[in-house]
Amino acid sequence: MTTNHYRRKIYLEDKPRLEAKNEMIKHFRPKREVEWLESTNSIGRVLAEPVFAKSSMPHYHASAMDGIAVVAEQTYSAHEQNPIQLKRNEDFIYVDTGNQVPSPFDAVIMIEHVEELNEETVEIIEPASPWQHIRPIGEDIVQEEMLFPQGHIIRPVDIGVLLASRTLTIPVIKKPFVTIIPTGNELMDPGDDIAPGKLIEFNGTVIANYISEWGGAPQLNAIVKDEPEQIKATLLKASEQSDIVVINAGSSAGSKDYTVHMIEELGEVFTHGVATRPGKPVIIGKINETIIIGIPGYSVSAYLALEWFVRPLICEFLQVSEPKRLMLKVKLGRRIVGTMGAEDFIRMNIGFVAGEFIANPLSRAAGVTMSLVRADGLLVIPPTSLGYEQGEYAEVELLKPLEEIKNSIVFIGSHDLTIDLLSSEMKKRNRSSSVMSSHVGSLAGMMAIKKGEAHVAGIHLLDPESKTYNKTYIQRFLADKEVVLYPFLKRKQGWLLSKGNPLEIKTLADIRNKEAHFVNRQKGAGTRILFDMLLRESEMSVEEIIGYEREMFSHLGVAAEVKGDQHAVGLGIYPAAKSMGLDFIPVSDEHYDLLMTKDFYESEQGRCLIEVIQSVGFIEKVEGIGGYMIEKNPEPIYFNSKCEG
Amino acid sequence: MTTNHYRRKIYLEDKPRLEAKNEMIKHFRPKREVEWLESTNSIGRVLAEPVFAKSSMPHYHASAMDGIAVVAEQTYSAHEQNPIQLKRNEDFIYVDTGNQVPSPFDAVIMIEHVEELNEETVEIIEPASPWQHIRPIGEDIVQEEMLFPQGHIIRPVDIGVLLASRTLTIPVIKKPFVTIIPTGNELMDPGDDIAPGKLIEFNGTVIANYISEWGGAPQLNAIVKDEPEQIKATLLKASEQSDIVVINAGSSAGSKDYTVHMIEELGEVFTHGVATRPGKPVIIGKINETIIIGIPGYSVSAYLALEWFVRPLICEFLQVSEPKRLMLKVKLGRRIVGTMGAEDFIRMNIGFVAGEFIANPLSRAAGVTMSLVRADGLLVIPPTSLGYEQGEYAEVELLKPLEEIKNSIVFIGSHDLTIDLLSSEMKKRNRSSSVMSSHVGSLAGMMAIKKGEAHVAGIHLLDPESKTYNKTYIQRFLADKEVVLYPFLKRKQGWLLSKGNPLEIKTLADIRNKEAHFVNRQKGAGTRILFDMLLRESEMSVEEIIGYEREMFSHLGVAAEVKGDQHAVGLGIYPAAKSMGLDFIPVSDEHYDLLMTKDFYESEQGRCLIEVIQSVGFIEKVEGIGGYMIEKNPEPIYFNSKCEG
Taking the model in full, what pTM does it have? Predict the structure, then answer.
C-alpha cells in the first residue's frame, strides 16, 4: 500500500458553492486579448468593442421598384384628363429595383403606371410625390451608427448588417485558452486495449466539448500519472500557457490525491471541498495568477463542478452573462431526502401525465453518467432543507426542451430489450415523440400507473396460484383506476450461464448443489417473483442460494454479472443471454404485457404506439432477436372502465 | 429598358404559408445517407440508428474507496470485542478507488476502518456486508443496453457514455447539402469597390450561417447575373448535386425575375407567392427531385422565408423536430395594423417597464435588416385579423433570452450619438444590463415615459418663449407623472454642409436664397422644433425651404443625406458632421437631458446609469468627440414627486 508524506495534510471543507464561486471570481485576473476577425467568420464570437457601420446601406438613393425616375415637381399637374409626356434621359430615366436614382430625380413611378409611347417617350396620368418608391441613403444602416455594443454575441443576421455596411473585420475577445489535465494511474485512452482495473479516460473529452460550447478554446492534455512531480510539472506549465486550468480528479483526500498539495506548493488554494452532493471534492486555487480548478473524478460530479466554476470563469473572461436554464414546477413522485448543510443536485426524469409534470429521481450515484444523460431536469435541494415529501411541488432546472418532455411517453416498469426498439421506432415515426423508460420492476411500474406518474408500464407478474399473468394483480392493486392491459408479447425466461456452462447447471437444485453465485433481481421485479415461486415449488429457502441478496435492476445487468464470473448464474430473458454470449436454459414462457391508463391508450400517442407494435417492421425486428413472440392484434382488456357495457 | 418574353407570365399567388409548407414537405424525398463518425467528433449530430453500448462501465467490479478487498463472509464475526486479523494476499488485498476487486473478494472496507498491524497483517473490528463499496460491473452502463435512440442529437455528456462504453464510432445522418445561389446584376462581393447602383451580396452569407446553425452543410455559389441561361445552368447543376437548393432573389414578378420561369422550364413550381407580409415573393418548386426554394431579395423577407421553408426541410432531412421559440405575452405600446388575408410578421422591441412587458413595432420595411437585428420578438398577426389596438395584449415569439429583455434599459426619444457609447459602457459594467434605444424624437420620447413604455427618454425641447429647455414641456405634458429630469449634456447644433461648403451657406436665409436642398427631421424631434423656431424668428415660411417635407429620423441620417448631395444642407449636431466629414457651422448650444421615471432613477439600474455617465472614462470619451460638454454631478430635478418637501 502506498503511503507518503502528503497523507497527513488531508482536509476537505464544506464551503457554500456560491461563496467559493464569488471568491474565485475575485481572484480572477483575465488577460483579455482582442482578435480582429473577418465578419464572415465571426459567428458566436463576442465583440471586444462597439462596432460602427463603415458605410451606409443603401449607400445611394435606390429605386424600390421597377419603373422610371422623375423629378416629382414636374409631375404635379398629371391627371387622367391631363396626361403628361416625359422624354427619356431628359425628364426621366428607366430604373430597376436597386438602381441608383441620380440627382435631380427625386421620385420613382412604377412601370405599371407608365404608358410607353415609343422608345424615347412615356406618358403618365398621376403625379408622383417627392421620394416615393425610393430607398433613401441609410434607410437600413447609416454610416457611423453603432451596429452593436461591446459584449454583443454575433448571430447570422448580424453578419448581414456587417457585410452590408462594409464592416469587413471586427474586434472580438480572443477565446480563453483552457488546459484540461486528466490524471490517474487507472486511466487509459479510449482506443487502448482494456484490462480490469483500467478505466477509459472520457471526462477530459466531455469537458473539452463543454468548454467549446461555452466559448472557450480547450486543450486536452495527455493523461498524467498519479506522480506528484509529474502533476506538478504539468500544472506549472499549464498555468503559464493558459487562461484557466482544469485538472480532473485527484481532488479528493485519498492517498493518491496529490492535486491540492501540488497547487499549494506552486501557488495558493482557496477552496478544497464545497457543500454540494455530489461534487464536494472540488479544489479552487491559483498558480502564476492563473485559476486552477480541480474537479472530481466521478463524471456527474465533474460536469456539475465544471458548470459551477469553469463556466462562470469563461463568461467572466468573455464578459457575457451566464445563460440560465428554464425552471419548471413539477410534482414529485417520490420522497427525496436532502443532505443538511449541503446542496443536493438530483437528476430527475420528468413526465407529462394527465396534465401534470411528474418528476422522479434517477440514480444519485456520482459515477452514473447515464443519470445525467437520461435526466430531463435538475432538482437542487438547498442546504437548509431536508428534502421533499412525495406529492410535493418543486422547481427544477430543465435540461431538455419543454416540448420534448411534454411529448414523451413515460414508460416504467419491468425491463425488456424490446422497449428500446419501440422507443427508437416511435421516434422514427413521430420525431417529437420519444419514449422515456425507467426500469423499476413490474410491481413498481404498476404503482406508477396507479399514482398517475406514467403512461405505460411493462409488467410480467405471475400469480403463483392461478398461474396467470398480470390480471389478478391489476384487480388487486388498481381497483379504482381506469386502465387497459394490452397483451404485448411472450418471452422465454431461463438460466443465464457462463459460456459452456462450466458448473453444469440444469435445474434450480443444481444452483444450490454446485454453490453457484446467484445474481438476483430487485424486489418487485417479475423475474424475482418467478424465482421465488420456483424456490417455493422446490421447497428451497433463500438461505440455500448464495448471492440471493445481490440485486440487479435489469436483465442485461444480470447477464453482465454472469459474464464476469465463471461461477455465476442468473434468471433472465433469452436475448440478454444472446447479446452477452452466454448459455441459456429455458425455464418458462411468460407474458410481458403493457398496462396503460385508459386516457393514454385512447390518445393519439397511444394509437401510434399500438400501430408501431403491430407494424411488420417492428414485429420482424423483435422476433428476429429470438425468444420473443409478439401478440398479433390482441384484444385489449379494460379494467374498471365506467363506460364499459 | 429590358423587356422579354418572360414578362407576360407574371403571377404571384397568396397561398397560406402552412399550406405551402405542407405541400413542399409532401414533395420532399430526402436521400439520407449514414455517415460513421468518431464519437469524439460528433457534437450536435443526429443519430441515424439507435446506439448500443459496446462494453459495460465499469467493465469489472471496481472498488469505490481506498481500502482493502475482503470476502464478506469472513468478516461477519468482527466486533470491537472481537477484532479479526486478516493476512495480505490471502484474506485481503489492498485496493485504491477504481481498482479491480477480483474473485473471491466481494466487499471493500475503507482504509480508515483498517488497523495496519504490519506489512502483512491488518485488523478489523466491524463486519463488511457483501458488495459494500464496490461499483458493480455495469453500474453506469451495461453492455448492449441502448444508449440513445435513433434521432438523438449528441451533447457533450453523451460523448462521455459513448467513450466509457467503448462505442468509438457512431452512425449519424449525413448533413443535407444545401446550395445557395445569389442572383442579381446589382450584386457585388463584399470586398469589391462599391459604386452607386451596386449592392453588396450579404444575404448568401447569412443564409449559409443559418443553414449551418440548423444542421445543414451549406455551399455558397458565386453571384449569378440576371441572365436566364446562366440561372438555368446554375439551377440545373445545383439540383443534381444538392439535397436542397436556395436561390436568392429573382423570386418576385419584375422584368428580371427569371427564377420562377427557369424552375418551370426545368421542373415544376408548386408555389409562387405566400400570404405573408413581408416575405410574399417566395417560390417553391422542384428540379430533378430536388426542392428549390426561391426566397425574396429583401433581407428581412429572405431570412423569414428561410425559416418558414428551408429550416423545416433540414429538420425533415435530419428527422428532428423543429425548435420552437418561447412565447411571451406583451402589452402593445402602439396600434398595429394587419393585412387582411395575409400573415404579418412584425419585428418588435420589448421592454420590461414597471412590471409589464411593453412591445413596440420596429420598421416594417422588408429591406431594413437592422429591424431584425434589433428585434426582441416577432409578432405574428394572423390573416384573419386586422391587427391590434394600443394597449391590447398579444403573444410574441422571443428572439432574445427573456433575462436579457428583463434587464434592458428602455431608452427612447431623441437621438444622440453618446447614447450608443452609454449603452456600450453600461454593458461593460454590468453585462446582463443593456440599453435598448429607439429614436423617435424628443416629444414622442416624453410621451413614452408618460405611457410607461420606457425607462429613460433623451429630450432637447426648446421652449421658444422662455428659451429654456425641457422643463416647461414636462410641466405641460406630464402633469401627473412622477419623473426626474437629469441634466445630461450640452451639445452644439448647427448647419451640416458638404465639404468645402460649395453653396457658401452661412445663415438660414442663405438656404432659401441659394435654393439648397434642406434635409429635415421628423415631427416632434427637438432639432425640428429648433428649425421651426429659427424660421419663425426670420419670418420665413416652410414653403420657402426646398426639402422641408423630407424627414430623417436621426442626425446621422441627415448627415448621410447631406454627404450624398452637394446641394444639401441640414440642421444637426457637430459629431454627426464630423463623423461624415462634413462642414459644420454652429447655430446654438442646446441642452440634451435625460427624463426618467422616478422609480427607474432610484433603482439599482438607474444608479448604475448615473455612475457611468459621471465616470471619468465616459466623460473623456464623449468630450473627446468634440461639440459635447457633459454636466458634472448636476442636481436632478424632480417633478410631481409626492414625497418631496
Answer: 0.92
With contacts defined as CB-CB under 8 Å, which chain B residues touch A303? 156-157, 160
Q: CB of A414 within 8 A of CB of A445?
A: yes
Residue B524's pLDDT band, with cuts at 50, 70 and 90, is: confident
A421 and B CB contact within 8 Å:
yes
> Is the Cβ pair A55, B202 closer than 8 Å?
no
User: Which residues, other chains included, contact A157 with Cβ-Cβ below 8 Å and sequence gap of 6+?
Assistant: B206, B299, B303, B369, B372, B373
Residues A193 and A267 in one domain: yes
My answer on whether B250 and B309 are in the same domain is yes
Asked if the Cβ–Cβ distance from A420 to B161 is below 8 Å, we say no
Strands B551-552 and B517-521: parallel
Give the residue from B431, B437, B552 with the most A CB atoms within 10 Å of its CB, the best one to mutate. B431
* A143-167: average pLDDT: 95
**Per the CB < 8 Å rule, is A56 touching B368?**
no
B465: in domain: no
DSSP assignment of B321-379, as one string? PPP---EEEEEESS-EEPPTTSEEEEEEEEEEETTEEEEEE----TT-HHHHHH-SEEE
In a shared domain, residues A488 and A618: yes
**Which contacts of A398-401 are long-range, i.e. CB under 8 A and separated by 24 or more positions?**
A398/A325, A398/A326, A398/A327, A398/A328, A398/A350, A399/A325, A399/A375, A400/A376, A401/B323, A401/B324
Q: Chain B within 8 Å of A502 (Cβ-Cβ)?
A: no
End-to-end, the C-alpha distance of chain A in Å comes to 74
B612 touches chain A (CB under 8 A): no
Q: What is the pLDDT of residues B216-251, one digit of tens each?
A: 999 999 999 999 999 999 999 999 999 999 999 877
Of A318, A353, A380, the domain-final residue? A318
Residues 6+ apart with CB under 8 A from A388: A332, A335, A336, A338, A381, A394
CATH number of the structural domain spanning residue A120: 2.170.190.11
A592 in the same domain as A487: yes
Same domain for A152 and A22: no
Please give the tally of structural domains in chain B: 5
Q: Which domain holds residue B275?
A: 5-30+176-318
Is A622 within the bounds of a domain? yes
Q: Using alpha carbons only, give the angle A511, A516, A521 rounded to the nearest 5 degrees.
A: 80
Structural domain contains residue A169: yes
Confirm or reject contact between A644 and chain B (CB < 8 A).
Answer: no
User: In chain B, what is the straight-line distance between the N-terminal and C-terminal CA atoms, in Å?
Assistant: 74
Q: Do residues A212 and A157 share a domain?
A: no
pLDDT tens-digit profile of A604-615? Answer: 999 999 999 999
Of B96, B194, B254, the CB nearest to A166: B194
The answer to whether the Cβ–Cβ distance between B254 and A323 falls below 8 Å is no
Residues with Cβ within 8 Å of B547's Cβ and at least 6 positions away in sequence, in order, are B516, B517, B518, B519, B520, B568
Q: Are residues A451 and A513 in the same domain?
A: yes
CB-CB: which of B162, B213, B431 is closest to A321?
Answer: B431
- pLDDT surpassing 90 at residue A435: no
Predicted pLDDT at A644:
47
In B215-234, the residues whose Cβ lies within 8 Å of chain A are none
Q: Chain B: give the shortest CA distance to residue A146, in Å.
A: 6
Q: Is residue A645 part of a domain?
A: no
CATH of the domain at B241: 3.40.980.10
- Inter-CA distances, B32 with B48, B173, B207, B284, Å: 9, 7, 22, 21
Q: Are residues A578 and A589 in the same domain?
A: yes
Domain CATH for B154: 3.90.105.10
Q: Is B190 on the interface with A (CB under 8 A)?
A: yes
CATH number of the domain at A394, please: 2.40.340
The answer to whether A577 touches A583, Cβ cutoff 8 Å, is: yes
